[in-house]
Amino acid sequence: MSATTLDARRPAGILVIVLGSLLTAGLVLLGGSEISPKLWMVFFALLAVFPAGWLLSRQGILSLDLVDQVVWAVLLAHTVFVARLKTTGGLVEGQALTSEIVIQVLIWGACLVYASARLLGNLARLKTLCGRNAKYMTLFAVAAISSTSYSISPMTTLAWSIKLGTILLVGSLLFDPKDPIRSCSRFLQATYAALVMMLAQYVILGLTSPEAAIEISGVSSFPRLGGYLFPPTQLSSVAGLVALIALTDLLTTGRKTASWIVLAGSLGLMVGSFGRAGILAAGVAMCLPLVRMKRTKLAVGLSLIVCMAFLYAPNLVDISWDLVTRGQRPQELASLTGRLPLWDMAMNRIMERPLLGWGYVSGGRVVLAMPFYGWIPSDAHNAYIETVLALGLLGGVIMFVCLAKSFLSATVALVATWRETPPTEAALITLKVLSLLVCLLVYGFFEGSFSGVPRVHTALLCGLVFCTDQLRRHSPR
Fold this sequence. Notes:
This protein is an all-alpha fold. It has 19 helices and 4 strands. The strands form 2 sheets. Strands 1-2 form a two-stranded antiparallel sheet. The chain has a two-stranded antiparallel sheet with strand order 3-4. Residues about 30-40 and about 80-95 have low confidence and may be disordered.
């Protein structure tokens, strides 16, 4: 790994992921219902990365570009802190404790201050927010912040709108209009490192508190990976994104060993969580690199092997059906695990405020926060409905145009760059960007994803939109 990149496929990058995972896991385990001195010591050691990185860069020892990547990775990977803490340091379900809230606020605040200072020192990076596709993401953020004035829960909307703005500012640091391909590469490397770090944190914390790493459904009594530490649907999605990037690397580069290890581990976590939306989205997106790299025979062959296994071992059908359905009743499956009634309720709420919606995040977190078939939904479980519920038709149109133009730009860029054999670096980066975008779009049909609470999926979408602008600028006309 060079001094200016954060590559999760090289030994130095793996070391960063391991140390970062141990540090953040320790931050959780040392905490309690009160903010202990040990917790403060670890946290300030973590914050020391920011000024230390700046000082080292001034001396020419470290590149600020690398610090930008680390900050982006921290912003994404710290979301595993949704785990709750006991006074004794264990993990339990329930109340959000003071220590967790303070740590969350301080991490987001530190990232916002760092991004603002960096952008003030290099105003040219602000052009990233005004790109052909990115301007719609910026408009969406403006609409989100503006919705505070009429939101059903102004403080909720304001808090999450600030986080959305922080994601946009930190993400823009990774992109240099003068070097589009390297900018996209830096974004993908930092994002990949963050996603792998999230899985590593889950594994480390899961080994110390197994009861917090496994969820047992209260309805079907079906166990699966996830639990309070990392919700199974999110675990499945993150593992699917990692598997998608690892598969693309495996098909396009010579780094076989590392890619095989990451691919196998992420697939195991994805399947073990039984998050059907994440598995479906990753499966659809994986078809793109397989087809583009002319590996369709491999995909067809694996499918035939599975079919033959079911044919000659009928008992596997029953076992597989139980795994896919997670022991749910036919009525629950027919309603997409309660999604259809939830979408109907959300549509009724949309009709009450069709133009501007109920306020960013408040649309799902407050309006739909009521007992619903035994559970309380935090969003509409559909990114597209959630967008309209939160920001009305205005926000829905902005997001639709952003997604459509970004998808079209990435598709055109892939066609334009995929002309040489072997494919160029630009073509491989474009393939990754389009594959990740497809994964997000499919996942958005079944979960709040990029339109819900602004976390990893929202950050990933912002970065991918920035990438489509860079790739469009680089693509041959």
